[in-house]
Design a protein that fits this description.
The structure holds two protein chains of two kinds. Chain A is built from 20 helices and 25 strands. The two termini of chain A are 75 Å apart. Chain A is rod-shaped and about 180 Å long. In chain A, a hairpin with a 6-residue loop joins strand 10 and strand 11. By secondary structure, chain A is α+β, with helices and mostly antiparallel strands. In chain A, the strands form five sheets. In chain A, strands 12, 13, 14, 15, 16, 17 and 18 form a seven-stranded mixed β-sheet that branches. By secondary structure, chain B is α/β, with parallel strands linked by helices. Chain B folds into two domains: 130 residues, Rossmann fold (3-Layer(aba) Sandwich), CATH 3.40.50.2300; 192 residues, 3-Layer(aba) Sandwich (Rossmann fold). In chain B, the strands form three sheets. In chain B, strands 12-10-9-8-6-7-16 form a seven-stranded mixed β-sheet, with helices on both faces. In chain B, helix 8 links the parallel strand 8 and strand 9. In chain B, helix 7 runs parallel beside helix 8. The longest helix of chain B is centred in the N-terminal third of the chain and has 35 residues. Chain B is elongated, with a radius of gyration of 28 Å. Chain B starts with a helix and ends with a strand. The chains are: A alpha+beta, B alpha/beta. At the A-B interface, helix 1, helix 3, strand 4 and strand 5 of A face helix 1, strand 15 and helix 12 of B.
Amino acid sequence: MNKLKTMISNSRSAINISFIIVLIFVGVLLNVRLRTLMYDFSEDQVAQQASIIAEKSSDSFGSVMDSLKSRSNALKDQEDEIVQKIMAIFSRSEGPVTLGLAAADGSAAFGEPVNIADFPAVQEAFRGNPSSCYNADRGLMFCYPVFHGENIKYVLYEIYPPQMLRGRFGVHCYDGQGRAAVMSLKNEILVPFADGEMSETAQFISSDNIPVFEELRDDLEYSDAVSKQINLNGSDYFVFASKLEKTDYFLLGFVPASIAAAGANDITSLVTNVFMLLTVLFIAGAIFLMMNTIKLHENEELVKEKQIAEEASRAKSEFLAEMSHEIRTPINAILGMDELILREYTDPELRKYALNIRNAGNTLMSTINDILDFSKIESGKMQLVPVEYDVSLMIYDLVSMIKPRAEQKGLNFIVSADEKIPRTLYGDNIRLKQCALNILTNAVKYTESGSVTMTVSFRQTDDRHIMIRLSVKDTGIGIRPEDLERLFSPFERMELTRNRSVEGTGLGMSIVKNLLAMMDSKIEVQSDYGKGSVFSFEVEQEVRSWRGMGSYESGVEEAANEETGSREHLTAPGARILIVDDIEMNLTVASGLLKQTEITVDTALGAKEGLELTETREYDIIFIDDRMPGMSGVDMLRELRKRENNPNCGKTCIVLTANAISGARDNYIKQGFEDYLSKPIDAAELENMLIRYLPADKAVITHESTETPEKKTSAEMTDEMDRFKDYIGNDDKLYDAMHLLLNRTAGRK
Amino acid sequence: MYKISMKKISILVSIAFFAILFVVIVILLNFSNIVKVRNADDKPYRVALLLDGIRSDRSWGQSHYDALARVTGDLGIELLCRENVSSDETFDKVVTALIEDEGCSVIVAASFFYGERLPELTAKYPKVYFLHASGLDSGDNLCSFYGRMYQYRYLCGIITGTQTKTGKIGYVASYPTSEVNRGLNAFALGVRSVSPDAQVFTAFSGSWKDSERDRATAEKLINEYGVDVLSQHTDTLAPLETAKEHGILAAGCHFDNSDIIGESYLTGCVWQWDVFYREQILACMQSRFHGGHRWLDSESGIMSIVDPTKTDPTRTGYEEQLKAAQDKLASRSFDVFYGPVNDNNGELRIAVGESMSDESMLNKFDWYAEGVVIVE
């Protein structure tokens, strides 16, 4: 796993690094290309500049030609004498420049004779074309024809000696930073650089640079001005060349790249910098993304871990549910046995012990129930089961459960219930009651003196619903504001040291909170530390009957009158039932509970045995435990229903189960059971069940209180103890003690 | 779902990024090429020659055709030749077809008379280069060119002048244009420079390529004027052949015909256009063509005279004079039309020490030098 992760992150960083390398490559390429482009651009710029310089230079040649032209015009068609006179005037201010008038054969018509072989321009001029030519010794000659009629009589010429050319025709460029010379097509230097040392030109046009010049010359064939970047003595230069119009000469020069391409370099560095910045940004982005990806991976890990944790939590909840079930079964037995003691024995001391057992058992039971509820909530299995119920009964139940406890502690329990609360509501009364009970229990638990006040009120929300409000005010120790948060966390108990004596799982409020949340409500707590607290909640319930409930006690009475009295007793001597369970103790308890009813009770240890029994005898009701090893209760029922010849094929079957999960009842009925009885078996419920399902002719119902049942003898007790021992196992010390106790009780009697 | 789409997006983004990078790299790598690639099609480069006559005339036409054939063969390009193209609308049609259908990039128009048609065509096809032999106009895509052939006619005149016994020389000319007159005057000046009393009997045949007329003109000059050397400025072989038939010497032009005429072929001033055409066609191919008017001198190497001893090794008597004239020309202190030159009416056309301008020589030669006798 880690290897894989490293591999992935390695390949990712490899990709990123290659990205960066490619980017750097692109950057370098861009820089090079840009530089080339900029140099091309600069070359163009320099070439343009060169052609401007060339224009200037050819202008200076042109001006010489222009002055020759105007003088030639003055000489045109003149008599020889006048020509001589005019020439004399012209030649006055010439200085080192030789002015002359040549005849066709080179002889001097005025001034010095010229060697025509040295100066081809003379003949060119004699053909009527103004011309110039260069002679390394004599200098630069400009010739202009002097016409006589249609023909050329003389050629007017000026010769500029070499030492004078630089001053007269020198070309300044780039503010003295560049150099330019005028060259002939034979690579003779006509006009050296105007700036710098005289020798510089010759140095520049040394044999080393000839190839470059040749290249430039070739390029000149294509355009009027060209430029090229070269490296001379370690620094970059632009060499340029441009034709000089109307001459056979060209301009050749150079300029340092730093001057010619100053702007271009700026642009290049600007673009390069921007690109570098972008690259850095990209790298930063890539790193950020990579880190995010790693984080994402970590998140995935976290999600996985969370899933695992949730799975573990669910497993824990399921384990708890299972455990609760497993614990409930023996408690069921204990409480059942205890109930038997209470019913059958009158010895006050024994009854006192038995009552204590019942109290402790009930506490344990409620604790288990809390844990079961909590685990159900945790594992998401908790469901609301809305039914139609009587509000007054619920309040009465609460009062009857809390009042004794409160009074026991010397607290004043005050109940204030709005008599106008609609009597019949539709909702999950069990859970509602549980919430209220938890709050009330807490109030009683944490109040040392004073009172606990329960207020029930309501408000109508629409024509079918009300919000029923229950608030419990106590004068207890209250809750510190900083503890409020922890109040609803599971397993948290406030001020442990102070409340050590207060028993409880610490699950109560958490369950309340969750149950209320399921009912779209929440608990509100107002607390004054040291003075007391008010817990309240509001739950929406559907109204089935708007009739006010009146005083809750009256409601209870009414209910008692409507139904068969809760204290009714059943005797059905002719009836015969079968109880199937895999645990013998349960069978003992159940049959013990039914002893007073005089019903014949057959018990079967396991489904197979049960089925065998059904083959032989006919039963009025069959109670079947669902959870049995080998064949489950549901399977047994199916098997029974299948056997058409079986006398009990269509008999009433009631499932016995500790499976208290919501929806279980519906599910069992769907499976074919007539009804459902949850374990531990409540004597009253069992009796109700019998009343409902026994054939009317077999059941005798009396409302009087039953006569004291005959008490068991010590010997009988010992028998029972042995059976008990068989079931529980061999914790001998415990059972010795119990035996002793039982014997003592029997002895006293 | 989220993970998958993230993955997909990141893959897509990576692909897109790489694609963009790739394109950028390719663009950067090819940048200079993109800018500089031109004329990338592989169509053969074609040069067309248009002739007033035929390519195998052993004269003006063949001098161009042979030179172009050699040059284009050398350069590995194609030469198309159209013969007998008259200088009317036919010329336009032929040129248009050559450019539009054949894809010719260079048009060589080898007749003076094509000049009238060219301005329109050069404007219509600015990307085609036009070379006009013996033309006078110029333009951005038009170069007219010719050589200072008059210098070579002058030399021919000197040789002829040394070889004539009767002092009567015949000259079969086509039309009295500046070009023809210039050549004729140069020839006459050459003759007179060595044989001061000689006369050049000149007759215009009224055609460049009509052999019959040339023959008739030549016959007339020989029979009626008793010329013992016959020169010409037309594009037919008739004058040379007629001279041979009559057993007199002949001085040809344009093309060296010494091999087919034999002993009676005295000399000739001939064209070798190769150097010029090579330079011009290369310039066209490299897009560095410069229009203009080029009047090439002896340094260009496109002209020469045929050695008189080529057909008759014993021929002599001309060498000194020829050598002297050649030296004088090379010294640049002399040209053919340097004064004094009188016309055949005795009028001084060019005074001593004066020279004739190119402008006059090219466009205004409407007179005949001393010694020229125009025969009707």
